[in-house]
Design goal:
The chain has 316 residues and is mostly helical. It has 13 helices and 7 strands. It starts with a helix and ends with a helix.
Length: 316
């Protein structure tokens, strides 16, 4: 058993950019920590810039990352009735639907200063759209990112595509990037209404494809290399957490087979073994540059998200 309270404290002590604020808030939401979610949503709204992007600090070029606190904003309005959260969420939704830069097909870029698509956006934008009941737009974005980044040969997702130059900025099959996609689609699957069962099955098929492909590269210890198919890259912790989270949610939701549970449990144990005495998950893609092992708010968040998903599965 991990000391989850230490993990929570270590997580909340970390400095956070917009996507980290959103991912950590989502972790506490899934754990049922209402007061923390509302406090984090309020801070995200407080740091909202004029165009609607939330939780903005430092360099102001992120497009989809600031959408990640959106679900916490909507939840906080539902819970409190405070118009402050509603107004903030509406401004953020306008950014996501209208003002954010996008290509001719309406697929939203990841940055304001480069026409690039990043695999990270699977997690940052579509779940917010789905929570706001913009289901078709959430699926449109997912399908757009998939068509651009999915490798038919490897059946994994590349990291960054430059839409202006029509070439990959980074073609590598980054583990955490594929984890963002898996977990983001899992969240959208959960949010889709009953009359979108066909779309739910299509999304589940995409997630299963990524899981099956990635599992071919799992190490004996239950972890993966930073670039999934490149054993020369460092051994990384967070992708195992992200995939295990996705598997638990998929099995609980009935769209993944229970045959995946043993590997989820193996990955969970491997990741839990990386938690130090301070509650920090070691060996994840380390902030701020994510090019070497270290610690990061997103690694902390997925430790908590995984605990929530495993807990919910065991209760079911």
């Amino acid at each position: 058993m991990i000391n989850i309270e230490k993990v929570k404290i270590a997580t909340l002590a970390m400095q956070r950019y917009s996507w980290e604020q959103g991912t950590v808030a989502q972790a506490f939401l899934e754990l049922g920590e209402t007061d923390i979610v509302i406090a984090m949503a309020r801070e995200a709204a407080y740091r909202q810039v004029e165009d609607g992007r939330t939780a903005v600090i430092g360099i102001n070029t992120a497009v989809t990352d600031p959408c990640s606190p959106g679900e916490a904003l909507l939840y906080s309005y539902e819970k409190t009735g405070d118009e402050y959260f509603k107004t903030s969420a509406e401004k953020l939704l306008k950014w996501a639907l209208v003002d954010a830069p996008r290509n001719e097909n309406g697929i939203v870029y990841h940055l304001t200063d480069k026409p690039e698509f990043w695999v990270d956006s699977f997690y940052m934008l579509p779940p917010f759209l789905a929570k706001a009941k913009k289901y078709k737009e959430a699926l449109h974005q997912i399908n757009g990112y998939w068509d651009i980044l999915f490798s038919k040969e490897k059946k994994l997702l590349s990291h960054i595509w430059h839409d202006g130059e029509k070439k990959f900025t980074r073609e590598a099959f980054w583990g955490v990037g594929n984890g963002w996609a898996m977990a983001g689609m899992a969240r959208v699957i959960k949010l889709l209404p009953d009359d979108m069962d066909t779309e739910r099955k299509q999304l589940a098929g995409k997630v299963k494809t990524l899981i099956d492909s990635a599992l071919q590269y799992m190490r004996d210890d239950g972890l993966f290399h930073d670039v999934i198919d490149d054993p020369e890259t460092f051994v990384e912790t967070n992708f195992a957490q992200m995939m295990a989270y996705t598997i638990y949610r998929g099995v609980s939701g009935g769209w993944l087979s229970t045959e995946y549970l043993p590997v989820a449990e193996k990955m969970k144990k491997a990741a839990n073994d990386k938690i130090d005495k301070y509650g920090l998950v070691q060996g994840v893609c380390g902030a701020p540059n994510f090019d070497r092992p270290g610690v990061a708010p997103e690694g902390q968040a997925f430790c908590l998200l995984l605990e929530a998903a495993a807990r919910d599965f065991n209760k079911s």
